[in-house]
Amino acid sequence: MTLLERLKIETRQAHDRIETAIDLDRRIASREAYRDLLIRFYGFHKAWESEAAERAPDRAFFDSRRKTDLLARDLEALGLKSGDIIRLPQCRPLMPLPAPEAVLGSMYVVEGSTLGGAIIARQVEHRLGFTADTGCAYFRSYGRHVAAMWKSFGAMLQEASSPEADDLIVGAAQDTFTVMHDWLCETP
């Protein structure tokens, strides 16, 4: 079994839990609910990117996948001022990221949510009329390159795979799902 297969199997329950709990239909039913969802995503990504960047195995690779600026752009399109965005609450506590392998495990969750983001973007565009330029840049983050970005992440993950690293990678992915669930589904 490859590391990607193991991650998919061992995080399935956590993935399903967050997918059910987030109640996407409610979160994209109105402009205000959608803005609140993006605020929660911003709080997660702002804290996570800051923490994970310090230990990322390949900083340029990591930096090319940051989402905070896209979220800030969306929030500005939805009426928030940049000063207000900077002061938004950030996700605490984060999951432990003691090593580059843990960052990769955490990135599995974040990059996987980008795949799902393409589907969410279509729903947001249909229901609310937002495009990548008017409030849906985060969910459209890689545009037509989403499959290629996932494939390149999978290749990096496989390169890092070893009997010693795989448990740390899977554990970090599970911890990330838990933290993300608690943060996104919490009522602010």
Radius of gyration: 16 Å
CATH homologous superfamily identity: Heme oxygenase-like
User: What share of the residues lie within helices?
Assistant: over 70%
Please identify the top-level CATH class. Mainly Alpha
The CATH topology name reads Heme Oxygenase, Chain A
Indicate the low-confidence ranges by residue numbers. none
Q: Please describe the biggest sheet, giving its number of strands, its sense, and whether it closes into a barrel.
A: none
Number of helices: 9
- The portion of residues forming beta strands comes to under 5%
Q: Any idea how many domains?
A: 1
Organism: Microvirga terrae
Protein name: Biliverdin-producing heme oxygenase
Strand and helix layout:
Layout: H1 3-21, H2 24-27, H3 31-53, H4 59-63, H5 68-77, H6 82-86, H7 100-128, H8 146-160, H9 163-185
Helix pairs in contact: 1-9, 3-5, 7-8, 7-9
Question: Mind explaining what this structure looks like?
Answer:
This is Biliverdin-producing heme oxygenase. Pfam families: Heme_oxygenase (PF01126). This protein is mainly α and 188 residues long. It has one domain (3-185): Heme oxygenase-like (Heme Oxygenase, Chain A, Up-down Bundle). The protein contains nine helices and no strands. The chain has helices spanning 3-21, 24-27, 31-53, 59-63, 68-77, 82-86, 100-128, 146-160, 163-185. The N and C termini lie far apart (40 Å). 32% of the residues are buried. The model has no long low-confidence stretch (mean pLDDT 95).
